[in-house]
Amino acid sequence: MKTFLPMPMPMPLVSDAGVAGAALQRRNLLKMGLASASTLAAGGLLSACGGGDGGGAAAAAPISSFALAVLPDTQFYSRYATSGESSQYERHYGSEPYYAQTKWVADNAAKLNIPFLIHLGDVVDQVGKPEQWKVADTAMQVLEVAKVPYSILAGNHDVLNDVDFDFSPSTGTDTQRVLANEPYLQWFSAKRAKRQTTFGERDSTGFHEYHVFTAQDQQFLVLSLSWRISDAGIAWARSVIAAHPKLPVILVNHQLLNIAPDAVSPLETNYGKMLWEKLIRDNDQIFMTLNGHHHGGAHLTKTNDFGNAVEEMVVDYQMAYQGGNGLMRLYEFDLTNNLIKVLSFSPWVPMKPADSLNAFDQAVLTEPNHSFNIAINFAQRFARFNPTFGVGKATVASSLVEQAKALVLKGFTEPTAVVQVPARDSDDYPKIASTVAHWRFFGGVDGAAVAPGTQIADVTGANPLKRDQLNTSVIVGAEVGDIVWSSDHHRLSAAPGSVGFLNTNKNTPRLSYFLTDAAAPINAQTFASGGYTVEAFIKIDKTWDKSKHAWMNIMTRDGKRGDLPGFNGGDPESPPLLFAISSLREVQWEVVPDTSGAREGEASWSGEIIADTWVHIAIVNDPTTHDTIMYVEGAPVLRNSGNVPGLATLSATSPWVVGGGSWDGDRADGFFGKIGEVRVVAEALPSTKWLTARRA
């Protein structure tokens, strides 16, 4: 995967429902768009922390409280800070999010009464890349130097054999690894863990550990279990709890709780249910669980065998803007008021240059699944195993969460989002003179079939599309009704409709699609000198199934890229251009550049795209650097490609295909869902000229 050099980032567009509404829309669209538009002035936060207006108001009574810092998956921070990925963060922003997180905790541990930090795993993205481990090593050393103890565990990206529980419950566990080969155990060994004053021990594999920390005169046990614990590991965990019969236990895993498709509600996993049955439900000391792995944030309260609550929480921001944008959590344990207060925030965002900020740069998240309180009567909850658990001394002036907010937001002004309204009519979009092709899929009766041979006009008049005849190449079983007209469309598209691609199944294979004529001028276009912009409005069908629809194509151009002179990359059977949806529902933009000499496919990737939701995708190639940036709903994605001039073509008669592609010369990988508009422009457009904007 290639990186890209800095280029100006257009301001994200939001709907006229208002900025706050747009934040939720972006989250649902991007899985983790996380562009909360709620703003809270630092002054208000300072007042909440006990600051007065000079009027002599009585100060709030001190409380007994402490806070735990939590680092969700840091994998992209480790990856994109490496020289192998062009030191992307440092080049763009002059700082790195992982280091910013641990430095903030080290700098504020004393003033915010933070006795401990918890890492949720996926320390790195690519287990076999030492440079990524070095980034993580450097960031965690900041805590060691500051003598802030922490626990850490291996996520699925941190082990050599990543086997999901749902795929194979009996293989891929801790006991089935060659321990001497595991990079995690080399970089974060038991010897290193012993540097922590809170460290207890590790299990025999070295993957699982426990710590005991003291806060407000009370002790807590943190039990951190790495990816895919075995029955032997669970037996060890149970023995640790049994050896500390009076301590409340925070159970930390990489995977336990998931998040439902609404990006808010909790969703139990089979692995989490296994842990519940084998470890949690009959261990009353476990009152709280934390995990990452699944993208977003959710909270579930379950009741154990003793009738007591167990608070399960998942948090993972890796699919947010910039691989998480430095977002992390603070859990305040307010023993005086019997509350656990949850704060999701980024210490990195306020460090970024002001001219680099956009509406996705939120220093504090305010949505209910990212900022919330849990009522818990600590003494009552722990009474069964620790009847002497106390409140401790009231040594804290005011809420630590509010103090943390004030520290993060001091001197920071949240960027303003551009409010964009829906189209007034079907012509309400910016007209671009350099448009090469603009296909708008509307005009038929809602639900009626788009007959084979039907022509879709190109706004320029030069490159119309037509639906191909049924069952050409290796296609089997395609019917007239497999493409239908629809009035459904993206909220910001001026085109009042779309076409739906139905009954697609790559295994049959069954698909239908549109393509340009062999003599269409666009077939010869390579865009090598002036840059380009490609836009599309798409909606993945709600019944999307990766076994049937993985790697489905939004748009391609025909031919086998292996036939291009100098091609020496992977998948030579693929077309030279792939605008597709991966097996993980990521948007893939992969092209072979129009250059001489050795060349291969160069890709940009989005995060997971939610099904049954319209998204606007823009691919912008800079005319000078030829760096390519993908934007999904206005947000630039993290994984982009650099120095990619043009779009190679096999010949001037190789057509462009919308809704389908090819493999090894045979038609394949049809789209499943709806496509509204597709536009190809021979220049790099700012967001103010995208199809989501309005005419002047």
From TrEMBL:
Residue intervals of the Calcineurin-like phosphoesterase domain: 94-295
Pfam families on file: Laminin_G_3 (PF13385), Metallophos (PF00149)
InterPro entries xrefs: Calcineurin-like_PHP, ConA-like_dom_sf, Metallo-depent_PP-like, STPP_CPPED1, TAT_signal
Coiled-coil intervals: none
PANTHER family named in the record: METALLOPHOSPHOESTERASE, CALCINEURIN SUPERFAMILY, SECRETED PROTEIN
UniProt name for this protein: Calcineurin-like phosphoesterase domain-containing protein
Natural source organism: Rhodoferax ferrireducens
